[in-house]
What does this fold into?
Amino acid sequence: MAEVKYINQEGIHNKFWSYDVDGNKVTYRWGRVGLKGQSKTKEYSSNQAAMSDVWKLVSQKEKKGYRVVEEEELKREVRVAQKLGVQFKIQDLKWVHRNSNKLTEIDEYDPNKWVYVEIVNSWKKDVTRLLLGKRESYRLGAGIMKGSFREMHIGEIAPVSDFSFANAVRSYLNELAAEVFEIVDRTVKIAAGGVRRLSLGCGSKSKVTLTKSETDNVVKQVASTRSSVNTKVLRKFAALGARRLTL
It folds into this structure.
């Protein structure tokens, strides 16, 4: 039978596991998404015994957050991991206004404002905080104090030293936003019988508000192939409506 692949991207995890059954032999592979990982082939007394062990392991993996993925999805997650670094995952994102050392969260994306991004390191268990504008990228130090859900006071801010990393984050967010936009566009056209269209212009001020069920459906579609992104981040992209991210 064909190799069956799983990934676990719950919390800070970004791991894969797979099995490939050949008669009474099973080859298991596991490791971090983006790396080669390890493999082991185990021989059983019969195919029935092999499958019994496989189903037991599958049950254990699913309880830990693993889910089946198609080959193309896994390849894309590998590309993302290799672009950002296999240890990094996008954890949170906010649209913000900056005033000196204070960031204030705003409800809607404004291409002339800033995007605050948190990237978690699943190896070191720490978080990299970036502030991205049209042409500028800053790294926020550990001195951040959150005054409230809407405001953050910055203790330290400096231009990023690793432009390749910041650019990888920009590229990923633009790619994700474009994918969400296309699904939102189809959702709106279907709801309006093909009459209403979203504006494709960058920075458009057109306003399209999805219903809760439409938003849930958009998030569900994207999350099914991009589970490495927190659903609250996907909801922010779904709420962009006719606007396009221009990082």
In short: The helical segments are 47-63, 71-84, 163-191, 212-223, 231-238. Confidence is low (pLDDT under 50) at residues 194-206.
